[in-house]
């Protein structure tokens, strides 16, 4: 979809998307479908990326270190929030 075209429309709310996959993912908001399951705790997620982020908590993965103090975070957004203390 070039030039800002959004040919895929949601039948429930009318929101439009450039890619069919984005429409499918959006549709899960309306249906409540959560097809991506955590194998450890069985929590469901609409997006695969959310499941991967969640699984880091089980593994205690913290791949985002602060360059100033070395403290590590599981999410880049949390690192960005933390970095304000060094400003």
TrEMBL record:
Residues 8-35, 36-63, 64-87 form the C2H2-type domain. GO terms for molecular function: DNA-binding transcription factor activity, RNA polymerase II-specific; identical protein binding; RNA polymerase II cis-regulatory region sequence-specific DNA binding; zinc ion binding. GO terms for cellular component: nucleus. PROSITE patterns: ZINC_FINGER_C2H2_1, ZINC_FINGER_C2H2_2. Gene3D superfamilies: Classic Zinc Finger. Its main location: nucleus. Keywords: DNA-binding, Metal-binding, Nucleus, Repeat, Transcription, Transcription regulation, Zinc, Zinc-finger. Pfam families: zf-C2H2. PANTHER family: FI01424P, ZINC FINGER AND SCAN DOMAIN-CONTAINING. This is ZN154 protein. It comes from Cepphus grylle. The lineage of its organism: Eukaryota, Metazoa, Chordata, Craniata, Vertebrata. The gene is Znf154.
